[in-house]
Amino acid sequence: MYKEFSKVYDEFMEYADYDLWYETLCQLIGVTEVQGDKLLDLGCGTGEILLRAHHDFKCEGADLSSGMLKRASEKLNSEGVEVPLYEQDMRELSLGKRYDVIVSMFDTVNHLTNREDLVKLFRGIYNHLEEDGVYIFDVVDREFMEEMFPGGVFLDERENMTVIWEHEYDEETGLDYIDTTFFVKNDMGSYDKYIEDYEKKVFTHEEIGQCAEEAGLDVRGIYENSELAGRRYFYTLEKKSK
Fold it and tell me: With 70 as the cut, is the pLDDT of residue 242 above it?
C-alpha cells in the first residue's frame, strides 16, 4: 500500500495542520488516566506526529509502507531525532513490547476492510498496551465520504500538483474503492504521474464497540471533531478492568 503515494505524500499534505493534530492528540491523552510515556505511532506515515511527540514521549513508529518509513527516517534524522521505526502490518502487530499510548491518526483504521481485521488490530493493541495504557485513533463516517467525493470525483488543483480522486461505494461489500492519480510538477517543468488505488471501509460506532469488546478493550470515549480535516470521530480505548 502507498508505494507511489509515499513519494508525494508530504506535498499532498502540505496544508495539514500537524501542530493542531498533535495538540488534539495531547488533549485526548490528557483526559485518560495513563501515567507512562512510552508511545507507539501505528501508521506513522512520514513521521510528522513523531517529530512533535518525541519532545513529550519515548516514541516509536510503525507503518505498513516501507516508502513511508524511509521518508520518516530521513525526516527524523535530519532533525537529529532518534526514533525506532518498524515495518508492520497493523493487523499482525508483533513488536514484543508494551506501550502506555498507541495512536493511529489520519483515519488509518478506515483502511481495514472487514470486521475480522478490526478485531485483529484490537487484539494486537491489547497485547501491546500496558495495563493502564490507552489506544487513540480517528475514523471518518459515511457522510464524510459522500461530501469528499460529490458525484464520485474529487479534483484538487494546486500550483505544482493536480490530484484526481475517483470514488465508488459498493453497497454489497460496504467498501469504498478509491483510484487516485497525481500529476506533480518536477524540476524540469514537466509533470510526473503517480497512480494509487486502495480501499477503505466506514465502520459504525456499534461495530467498533463490538470489536473492541471482543478484543478485551473498553471504549472510554468518542469525540467528534470537525476542525482538523472534515468531520471525524476520535476514540479512546483502554484494557478492560480485571
Answer: no
Is residue 241 very low, low, confident or very high in pLDDT (cuts 50, 70, 90)? low
Contact in structure between 219 and 237 (CB atoms under 8 Å): yes
All structural domains of the chain, each given as residue ranges with its CATH number in brackets, are: 5-141+202-239 (3.40.50.150), 143-201 (2.20.25.110)
Helix or strand run (H / E) with residue 109 = none
Q: pTM for this structure?
A: 0.92
Whole-number Å distance between alpha carbons of 186 and 163: 15
Diameter of the chain by CA atoms? 62
Give the separation between CA 212 and CA 36, rounded to whole angstroms. 22
Provide φ and ψ at 197, rounded to 5°.
-120, 135
- Where is 179: in which H helix or E strand? strand 175-185
Q: Are the C-beta atoms of residues 68 and 99 closer than 8 Å to each other?
A: no
CA proximity to 15, closest of 137, 112, 203, 158: 158
Q: How far is CA 206 from the centre of its chain?
A: 20
Compute the distance between CA of residue 105 and CA of residue 50 in angstroms, rounded to an integer.
11
End-to-end CA distance of the chain: 38
Give the pLDDT band (50/70/90) at residue 161: confident
What is the rounded distance in angstroms from the CA atom of residue 240 to the CA atom of residue 242? 6
